[in-house]
Amino acid sequence: MHVRGPGGLAQAPTLVGVSTGSHARPPAGPGETPDTPRAGLPARVLQALRRDRGGDTPEGEGGGRRPRSPWRVGTPLMVLLSGSLFAVSAVNSEGTDLRAGRYTDLASLVQAEAEAYEELRARVEDLTGQVNDLSAQVGSRDVQRVQARVEELRDPSGLTPREGEGVRIVLSDSPLQAEDTTQPLKFLIVHQQDIQAVVNAMWRGGASAVTVQGQRIVSTTGIKCEANSVTLQGVPYPQPYVIEAVGDPEVLAASVDGDPYLSFYRQQSLTEDIQIGWEMSVEEEVEAPAYDGLLDLSYAEPLA
Predict the structure, then answer these.
(1) What is the extent of the structural domain holding 242?
(2) Which pTM was predicted?
(3) Over the stretch 28-85, which tens digit does the pLDDT of each residue have?
(4) N or C, which end of the chain has less CB nearby within 10 Å?
(5) For residue 66, how many C-alpha atoms fall within 13 Å in the half-sphere facing its CB?
(6) Is position 216 within any domain?
(7) From the record, what ranges are coiled-coil (predicted)?
(8) Which contiguous run of DSSP H or E holds residue 246?
(9) What is the CATH number of the domain that holds 186?
């Protein structure tokens, strides 16, 4: 707009007014600053303003505070539990290996078990000798009578060594592997019943002494399979298994040949896809040491 002045026409100053419409910011109220978000603004605007200023979005206005992660509590608990387990293991181990007996092969396991048994056997033999010495010093007539009876039974009980001609049988696992045959795997390895069948046939043949792996067999001897080895009197032995008997070789061989179980075993030894090991020979000299294991028997008693 133009106005007329003393110097002629001149442009009048333009006044700009501030709208109080819906897009205008209302004046600040008491206690508010120009930067304070006002009530009535959309929730998205409020959240954006607070994020720009580094504030948190209050609960109930388009969200809430970020929930606390369970790992903040779970991680310390897991660390504490692991530490407790390590402490308990250290106390219980007492400086030793909690998983003792870890060996790289079966031969190492058998060797370790055999050495442990020999130590115990030597200890038993020493204590038995001390008991016998003390018993011999007793002058009681009843004790002397019992000792005489014990001496009579030592030989038939296997407590005295024997030697003479006899028979030797060797049983061994098949050289075939699982992929070399279609026969069941149980036919390829020697089992405890195979050894027991040979021992029983020798007893029937009149053997005066029988040994397995050089150990004297007596009436209380147990032969048991454990994995790929056979345990005899608490000692595990790997194959091949050597069984020897002192007696008449012809009678012993006839007893073995006439056993139905061993006849089937020998047939399997000749079968191409089984080849279980079997060797029998007559020996001029067989040595059977005296039994030196435990003689005590454990048995159950009926309740009164």
Answers:
(1) 162-288
(2) 0.55
(3) 455 545 555 555 556 665 566 566 555 444 444 444 555 666 767 778 788 888 888 8
(4) C
(5) 4
(6) yes
(7) 110-137
(8) strand 241-246
(9) 3.30.70.1880
